[in-house]
Amino acid sequence: MDKKVSGSVINRLPRYYRHLTDLCSSGTERISSKELSERMGVTASQIRQDLNCFGGFGQQGYGYNVEMLRTEIANILGLNRGYTAVLVGAGHMGRTFATNTKFESRGFKLIGIFDSSPEVIGTEVSDFTVMDYADIKEFIDENHPKMAILTVPKEAMKAVAEDLISMGIKAFMNFSYTELAETEGIIVENVHLSDSLMRLSYKISECENKEKLDKE
């Protein structure tokens, strides 16, 4: 694939994958772009444009084979490559994330959880025993994880990230309420749950303002 795919298209691919997974589970064998658009709330034209970035996959008069399209999108997203990850920070957020996230169906396998607190080290989280962060370099050298999930306090995030980069980690999912910059060779996904709440607040406010104007 020679042309660069826009970020907005990439951001929609997980939604396609989720809807196609649901369709596979319900036994649906094929679907048209119009039917898929109605499920997803985007236009059929947008779906065709997005999928054409990767070759199209549909057949005129038939639509899309659901299982085949799901497999193709999984391949595009790299969900079948078995990337491994460690989680650093076994506080409330880290424990919740480790316990409730289906890592392997999202393209990653969690292989270790670390923390620096003596009260947390040695406790159980899901199927893991929390290990001492002081031992993480040896673990990384032996297991070569591709990604680190950071659920550490924001004041510790930069030092922990720099530490892990020096050990060979090249990708981060950062939940630490402060931005981790993406630099040459380092991939970052900053996750801000508070941003989602503020966007929701804005939408509610806009809706209320519209209702108020309609009543005047």
Automatic annotation (TrEMBL):
Q: Which residues hold NAD(+)? A: 89-94
Alphabetized InterPro entries for the sequence:
CoA-bd, NAD(P)-bd_dom_sf, Rex_DNA-bd_C_dom, Tscrpt_rep_Rex, WH-like_DNA-bd_sf, WH_DNA-bd_sf
* GO MF term list: DNA binding; DNA-binding transcription factor activity
Q: Single Gene Ontology BP term?
A: response to redox state
DNA-binding region boundaries: 15-54
For this UniProt record, the keywords arranged alphabetically read as follows: Cytoplasm, DNA-binding, NAD, Repressor, Transcription, Transcription regulation
Annotated Gene3D superfamilies: NAD(P)-binding Rossmann-like Domain (3.40.50.720), Winged helix-like DNA-binding domain superfamily/Winged helix DNA-binding domain (1.10.10.10)
Domain CoA-binding, first and last residues per copy = 78-179
Q: SMART domains, alphabetically? A: CoA_binding (SM00881)
GO CC aspect terms = cytoplasm
Q: Where in the cell is it found?
A: Cytoplasm
- Keyword Isomerase listed? The answer is no
Q: Which residues form a coiled coil?
A: none
* HAMAP family tied to this protein: Rex
Entry's family note:
Belongs to the transcriptional regulatory Rex family.
Q: What subunit structure does UniProt give?
A: Homodimer.
Function text: Modulates transcription in response to changes in cellular NADH/NAD(+) redox state.
Under which name does UniProt file this protein? Redox-sensing transcriptional repressor Rex
Report the source organism.
Monoglobus pectinilyticus
What gene name is given for the protein in this entry?
A: rex
